[in-house]
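Fold sample X.
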Amino acid sequence: MSTTQTITIEAVPGTEIRIRLVPPATSLNISTVDGMLGELVRRGGGRIREAADGLIQMGYVPDVPDVRKGGQRQAYLGWSDPARAYDARAKFTLYLEPGTVSFGLATDRRVVSGLPGADTTPESYVAFRLTQPDGVAHALAAARAVKR
């Protein structure tokens, strides 16, 4: 039996609204890097795999996020740079989500915010939309710019 959910969105002119339809859950084990990557590809398509392959070639190391309160794990892979020292608050250099690669560290945001494809709208991070023309290339160029 299928259920329908209605969502009403009100916005002022000039507001950008992004909608992402999430497919039903699968039986993938998202507690592993391979399982999470499979889930991200399922949600975001082949550009996710292309971005992940590029990050691995640069030497970034993927990891799954911790389980949040309530027992849910968010759908992303965090990527660390082995040449960097991380503290308890900053575990990853960048994040690969179903439609974006994003950078949250203030020092990295300053480096990548002026690069082609950078979306600084969220203000707390800089995102590169993989669905945009050259989105994967722009995201990988940003990853290269902050790699040590």
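Fold sample Y, listed below.
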Amino acid sequence: MPVVELDFTNVNVKKKEKKQAEKYMSNYFNLEGIINAKKLNIETKMTTNYQASESQRTNGFSSEVERIAAIKIQIQEYTLLKGQLDSLWNGLSEMHRFIWEQRFIKGKSDTEIYEELGISRKTYYQEKPKLIAMVVAACDLWGI
């Protein structure tokens, strides 16, 4: 079966979509830790607390069950995001992975990256937007 490669050359990514994609790319290597920390927050706390709870101070309703349910939803969302980004990462070319890691994880400048890659400035500025468009597509960020 032939491999179909999507072309992201002329894809127009809106500013808000680009910003969200860049945020996801910057946090990619932290997602596993975030998920694990959220899982630790699910454990109910059985310690005595003599301070008034939020519901006692404001007459609002707040329960441990709701808190745990909200955290479980967050874990599901982060797990889905990590899966989407993992799938994309594993399918990227070495050049796109290098750009992702150097620019969005390590924070290197664009100039440093294209010089390290040994590619022209023009090629770099063609490939970087393609990478961002791939993240937008993988995470279904269109129209946010």
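Sample Y note: Confidence is low (pLDDT under 50) at residues 1-5.
Also: The chain has one domain: 15-138.
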